Design the sequence.
């Protein structure tokens, strides 16, 4: 460890600065000459200590800073290492430990922004010097600041009633927190409620899900709002104000017991509306319940098809049939306000639309199904009571399952949807079990990375299911031989055998991938969080903050973040609940002190800043004729500071003078 | 006079000219994207110096003027995509200002390629690479801007002018 401890160095009245550069093993030192940068830094005015160290974030590294502050009477600290998004807090604490105000610290990002993105050592070292100089110039101007403490409302909002939302809500409620669970559909359960069995254990989805659904309904700490959507979120971590739109279901939820007499009594003698829960494979009436275990077990009236809602001219036989007077056609859409401290988003996924891959013939050939349709077909409470039948009622003798539909595909989605290999294996097993058909799996790579997953694949291999390695080029009904007549033919290059095959089958199952919900873009704007370019919600850090978002107090869980299976979803939901609990149980949250304030004597009262603030934090004091910023409402974007023509708005941590000194610093060569 | 200021003025494109680009990236999207580019080990031109601001709306037009006046050959601003701003609308405010800045800069005689505003989300590390590389190449072709050098020259000319004017004025007074 080479270092300069010019203890006696005069600083000409400048604050005494300690400079530290991290090797980060070879992550930084492999490209940037850290010794040269440290030597360079010690020549800069004010720097009295300049050191390079293998791992600044390690305990000894942090201790070094704290020690030096005491020993060399340091007044400012600069650390050149990784992104402030990772270790800013670490080094602020180290400064604090040495007795300095934590904001007398500036971090230089020479790893993510230099050593990892450049190959030319000289150029990267030069860049590091420039960035370090800027930070040293800047830190001289830093001021002592205090973090703001705001109380955290202990109530939590969970959005989305799939398995992720259910698990998060239950975990929070069991910890004694009041939870509001908002679900868009008429029942909770999400996609898991549509599944028949779950891989690799083959336990039935309903058997493991419905107890949790009932627990949600009966939990004294959970308020369940189905058929509702979050419309607006205001406020900040610890005190969010949420507006929820509650759509009219035309049923008084507290009166309906789910006897379903009204459904039988509906003037529609025959069910005519495609049943969305059964993927359109069956029909329902305008008054319906999604599935027998729907929670809440309350019927719902579909306003798009109910004659009375549409025209007001109906005999209303349903009303007559209900002896509890639960049907109420006067219900209107309601907007309800809710105050919570934290939010868990678990809005799930949407299956890929196979019409976007027309060569597989979905929508063209009646024998082509999606995986979710097959889930319903093999389900005992599904449209065929568990019988595997083609749309024209035939028992298939051969079934082909095409993997990676809308996954790992340059033309549609590049990502692997993670669950399709496993659910295809499961469906292969179930189809074989239910129909005795020959089942062919057409796969690119078999991906079974999970506890007991590979073993499940082995089991399927031994069950006589066929596996053909190759991406199916086309599904066609064009028969070339007599055996192919009346069949669907899958054309595929068998990449293991090395020739092109034609496999005739009666039923094709498309293992559709997982894609973001169609309105994921709108949802994340409501909650002010980010999306990756594929449209899944962006986590704060892919490894170390997988359920946090860039908005404090908003957490994500389940397939809204990325495709994942049920065990991972539940684990993530538990993690999101724990993160919310950590905030709630602390009782307060500390906010960055980067808010803005008005220098009263300089404000000219022009009011330019007032309409710019998105949080209406700026008001005008009519008696003084000056603008005034409410620190509690200010979120610290600095838009007002940039707009103030008299320079009388100051943003803490990002003062004009600090940024100017940074500009000077990077260009001072 | 520093080494850089001694470089020839605009247009002559000296050999080995490395543009100096100052970038203002918003904390939530573009700064994160630059972090992502790093984590993904994407390689791009080392000519850019990133300064972190909380929101692209914090970028005061004076920051840009200051950067050029200090010797930057180009200024890049990165913010969240429209509609995605962490502070809901800061990037729109930035856009409004930067259109004005672009006009002013062009009236000052700066080529428009020297100033650029880009929307780069936190997931678009590859876009940071592409934008930086493209801008560095464009500015490299334009050659050094060297406003400090030009200003100095102007000051010298003015001083010399004064030298001639003052005695004449005094003579006239007498």
Sequence:
């Amino acid at each position: 460890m080479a270092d300069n401890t010019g203890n006696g160095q005069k600083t000409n009245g400048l604050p005494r600065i300690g400079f530290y550069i991290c090797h980060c093993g070879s992550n930084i030192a492999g490209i940037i000459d850290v010794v040269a940068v440290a030597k360079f830094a010690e020549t800069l005015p004010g720097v009295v200590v300049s050191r390079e160290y293998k791992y600044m974030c390690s305990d000894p590294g942090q201790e070094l800073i704290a020690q030096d502050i005491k020993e060399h009477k340091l007044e400012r600290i600069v650390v050149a290492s990784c992104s402030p998004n990772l270790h800013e807090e670490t080094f602020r604490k180290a400064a604090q430990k040495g007795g300095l105000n934590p904001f007398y610290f500036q971090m230089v990002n020479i790893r993510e922004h230099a050593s990892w993105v450049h190959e030319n050592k000289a150029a990267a070292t030069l860049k590091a010097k420039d960035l370090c100089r800027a930070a040293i110039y800047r830190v001289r101007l830093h001021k002592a600041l205090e973090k703001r403490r705001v109380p955290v409302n202990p109530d939590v909002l969970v959005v989305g009633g799939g398995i992720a939302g259910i698990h998060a809500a239950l975990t929070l409620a069991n910890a004694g927190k009041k939870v509001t669970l908002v679900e868009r559909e008429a029942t909770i359960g999400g996609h898991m409620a549509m599944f028949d069995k779950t891989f690799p254990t083959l336990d039935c989805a309903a058997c493991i899900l419905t107890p949790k659904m009932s627990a949600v309904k009966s939990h004294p700490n959970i308020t369940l709002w189905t058929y509702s959507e979050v419309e607006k979120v205001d406020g900040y971590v610890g005190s969010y104000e949420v507006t929820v739109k509650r759509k009219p279901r035309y049923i008084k939820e507290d009166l309906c017991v789910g006897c379903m007499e009204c459904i039988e009594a509906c003037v529609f003698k025959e069910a005519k509306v495609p049943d969305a829960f059964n993927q359109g494979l069956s029909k329902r009436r305008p008054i319906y319940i999604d599935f027998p275990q729907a929670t809440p077990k309350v019927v719902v009236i579909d306003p798009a098809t109910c004659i009375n809602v549409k025209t007001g001219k109906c005999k209303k036989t349903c009303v007559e049939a209900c002896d509890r007077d639960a049907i109420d056609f006067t219900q209107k859409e309601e907007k309800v306000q809710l105050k919570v401290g934290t939010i868990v988003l678990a809005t799930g996924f949407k299956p890929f639309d196979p019409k976007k891959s027309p060569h597989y013939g979905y929508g063209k050939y009646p024998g082509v199904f999606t995986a979710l349709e097959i889930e319903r077909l093999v389900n005992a409470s599904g449209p065929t009571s568990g019988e595997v039948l083609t749309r024209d009622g035939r028992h298939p003798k051969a079934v082909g399952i095409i993997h990676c539909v809308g996954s790992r595909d340059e033309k549609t989605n590049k990502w692997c949807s993670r669950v399709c290999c496993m659910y295809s294996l499961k469906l292969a097993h179930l189809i074989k079990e239910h129909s005795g058909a020959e089942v062919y799996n057409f796969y690119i790579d078999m991906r079974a990375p999970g506890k007991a997953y590979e073993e499940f694949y082995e089991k399927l291999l031994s069950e006589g299911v066929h596996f053909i390695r190759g991406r199916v080029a086309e599904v066609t009904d064009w028969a070339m031989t007599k055996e192919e007549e009346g069949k669907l033919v899958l054309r595929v290059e068998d990449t293991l055998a090395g020739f092109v095959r034609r496999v005739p089958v009666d039923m094709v199952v498309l293992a559709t991938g997982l894609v973001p919900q169609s309105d994921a873009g709108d949802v994340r704007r409501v909650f002010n969080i980010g999306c990756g370019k594929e449209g899944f919600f962006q986590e704060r850090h892919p490894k170390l903050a997988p359920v946090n978002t860039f908005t404090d107090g908003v957490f994500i869980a389940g397939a809204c973040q990325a495709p994942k299976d049920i065990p991972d979803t539940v684990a993530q939901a538990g993690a999101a609940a724990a993160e919310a609990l950590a905030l709630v149980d602390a009782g307060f949250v500390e906010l960055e002190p980067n808010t803005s304030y008005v220098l009263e004597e300089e404000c000219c009262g022009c009011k330019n800043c007032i309409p710019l603030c998105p949080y209406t934090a700026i008001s005008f004091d009519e008696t003084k004729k000056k603008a005034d910023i409410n620190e509690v409402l200010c979120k610290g974007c600095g838009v007002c500071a940039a707009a103030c023509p008299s320079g009388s708005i100051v943003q803490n941590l990002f003062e004009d003078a600090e940024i100017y000194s940074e500009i000077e610093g990077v260009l001072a060569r | 006079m520093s080494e850089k200021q001694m470089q020839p003025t605009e247009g002559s494109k000296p050999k080995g000219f490395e543009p100096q680009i100052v970038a203002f990236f918003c904390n939530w999207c573009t700064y994160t994207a630059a972090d992502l580019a790093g984590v993904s080990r994407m390689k791009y031109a080392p000519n850019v110096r990133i300064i972190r601001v909380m929101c692209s709306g914090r970028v005061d037009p004076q920051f840009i003027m200051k950067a050029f006046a200090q010797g930057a050959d180009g200024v890049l601003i990165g913010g969240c995509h429209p509609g995605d701003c962490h502070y809901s609308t800061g990037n729109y405010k930035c856009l409004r200002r930067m259109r004005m800045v672009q006009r002013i800069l062009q009236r000052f005689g700066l080529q428009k390629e020297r100033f650029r505003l880009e929307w780069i989300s936190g997931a678009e590390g590859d876009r940071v690479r592409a934008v930086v590389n493209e801008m560095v190449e464009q500015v490299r072709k334009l050659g050094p801007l060297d406003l400090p050098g030009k200003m100095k020259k102007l000051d010298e000319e003015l001083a010399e002018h004064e030298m001639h004017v003052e005695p004449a004025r005094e003579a006239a007074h007498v």
Observations:
- Chain A has five domains: 3-139, 156-247+333-348+517-586, 261-321, 350-515, 596-651.
- Residues 566-586 of chain A form the longest helix (21 residues).
- Residues 638 and 651 of chain A are 6 Å apart (CA to CA).
- Chain A has a mean pLDDT of 95.
